[in-house]
């Protein structure tokens, strides 16, 4: 069986200045996932039959020179590098799986691009296009980086976190992260409380005041008003964060109660720090992660690892670090007293150091190996179809750049059932998982998938989260933290920007009178519709109640009962006068006019019943017209009575011709003439612009006034003015006739009644104009009742007194004697 070597470069990450072996624990799973994938492929006869894959593992040491050196040695297979000299073509690499950061991937691509060797990168942020000469041969086993930015923004928006800190490395990649994310956050209304650019590891020792820099960052992280911090969590940043948290413990001595929101780089892999300080500060962290699934058989593969294996150059060092023991033939024998037995169980290692379930990074490496294998299978299958030479010549005739078109079109389902394919930019088409990191006192941890972010979702929401599955930091009492610059403006208030402060910081001002805001953090208040009014809190609109003088309220009941009492009193007086119609006091001054006046007064007292209750079209037309006509009849009757007194006196003078004007016809004509003028005015009013039911939505703030719109205000005042004119004429005539020496002179009583009448209606006008709603109607009713009661009292009560209580005075002799006196 022919052997074709397939070279894969996996770059390990570690802390500069510390032996690289001290950080192997977490990254060791990446190597095992690579080995596991190659093992599965070599055992699978459906992929690359008769061909076995091999690999090399190199460490970049996060150093450009070492990365270039290792890349060249991968190409030329020499410990010393000779440019443009290929030694042992059979072992030439067909593809490289690059590092976990863009810097390492860029260094590798600089050399591999010259030889058109495809590189499958694992970095979340792609190198700048201007830095890559042969971008055609670059593929990324992660989604487009813009999707990660979108996921971070959507995650913050989901929890309404609008006051956050951002931390990134102080290099080009970190600066790009800060600028891009800050811009996207501001577009969505999220402010940054602070942005921190961490020191580059290579420059820390050269910075004299790096302690002060880290101390200032530590103070920022302990600020209680910033509860959420977004971290571009690559290995460089994590190292600096560890130093900062050390200062928090030693110098600041305040808790770091934060919700950490991490990018998909995040993983617990810095072993020395966590062994000293624990991982509780990151309890409840939320992070993005490239979607991963559990690979069948992977955990069994981990259990089968043997520290005595000679094929694995990493496992012995891993074993000593993981279990704190040493093998007698290694360099750590003198540093530890405990000896490794090889029987230790990998599942007992805390999750912060090593996880038994496949991590997101390892899952990407696993898929990358399979992607290359499927591309090779497709390439060889294509050559076989075209009759290409087989065997060793066939393998040697394959060059790495021939793999490119097959990688571009690759699409397959892995053993976990997930589809793996690249888009037109050579980036993985995949979702992001939302991970909640739960830590425990024994330094173990649990990763809980609480949601996902599908960047290609056609639905409105790309992010879905199960909030009930999230474990928050104990400081937040198991509730979703609130991350705002200041408390939100409750309904009833609006936001007012603070001077020289970010737009997320504002004050809350109460809405003006008459306006409301019914949501939190509104910028403007608004008025309620005309049929609604604001409540006291100014956060809701309530429906306005109808305002009219009702029979169901005390004021309406009182005025209605009062009108009926006066009506009954008038009817009683009318009955008394009818019963005693032949007596001198009733006959005096024209009995028919007296009856007419009493009937008109009775109707005047009944008029207010038209004003009580909800007005409608017919009642609106009857109200003022009935009032105007009935009062005109009453005033006409009084005027006729007064003129009768004057004419009676004038007729007694020698040679007077006034006797012909005395009699029923003249008085009846006077009453009819005056009343018909008012009736004519009312007819004109009803025919031209009659009263109608109207709703006044603005007169009262909390009620809709149901009223009778007078239609033509001029006609209303004409009718009211005509009644006033008759009353004024009555008053003037009666005033001058009050002392006429006549036996049956009623002028003095009419004078007093008109004085009361005019006083009531003169005060009515300003009161009527100054009141609103049902009280306007009540004022008019009161004026009708008061003026009518004044006429009834002044004119008829003295006569009733004589008729009922002093009948002996109701004789001609007594009346003549009183008249002479």
Task: Explain what you see.
- Mean pLDDT is about 80; it is low at about 1-20, about 80-90, about 270-275 and about 390-395.
- The chain has four domains: about 20-140 and about 295-305 and about 340-420, Rossmann fold (3-Layer(aba) Sandwich), CATH 3.40.50; about 145-265 and about 455-475, Response regulator (Rossmann fold); about 495-545; about 555-650 and about 660-820, Rhopdopsin 7-helix transmembrane proteins, CATH 1.20.1070.
- Helix 5 links the parallel strand 4 (about 165-170) and strand 5 (about 190-200).
- It has 24 helices and 22 strands.
- It is an alpha/beta fold.
- The protein starts with about 25 loop residues before the first helix and ends with a helix.
- Fill in the CATH topology of the largest domain: Rhopdopsin 7-helix transmembrane proteins
The first-level CATH class of the largest domain is given as: Mainly Alpha
Q: How many beta-strand elements?
A: 22
Which value, in Å, is the CA radius of gyration?
52 Å
Neighbour order of strands in the largest sheet: 5-4-6-7-8-11-12-13
What is the distance, rounded to the nearest whole angstrom, between the alpha carbons of the first and last residues? 157 Å
Mean pLDDT comes to 80
Provide a count of the helices.
24
Short structural description:
With 821 residues, the protein is an alpha/beta fold. 45% of the residues lie in helices and 12% in strands.
Please write out the topology:
Layout: H1 24-43, H2 64-76, E1 96-97, H3 102-112, E2 119-121, E3 138-140, H4 145-158, E4 163-169, H5 172-187, E5 191-198, H6 201-204, H7 210-221, E6 228-231, H8 235-252, E7 259-262, H9 271-277, E8 285-290, H10 298-303, H11 315-323, H12 360-385, H13 392-396, H14 404-408, E9 411-413, E10 419-421, E11 432-439, E12 445-453, E13 463-465, E14 493-497, E15 506-510, E16 515-516, E17 526-527, E18 532-534, E19 541-543, E20 545-547, H15 554-579, H16 584-587, H17 591-606, H18 608-611, H19 617-651, H20 664-688, E21 692-696, E22 703-709, H21 713-737, H22 747-770, H23 774-805, H24 812-820
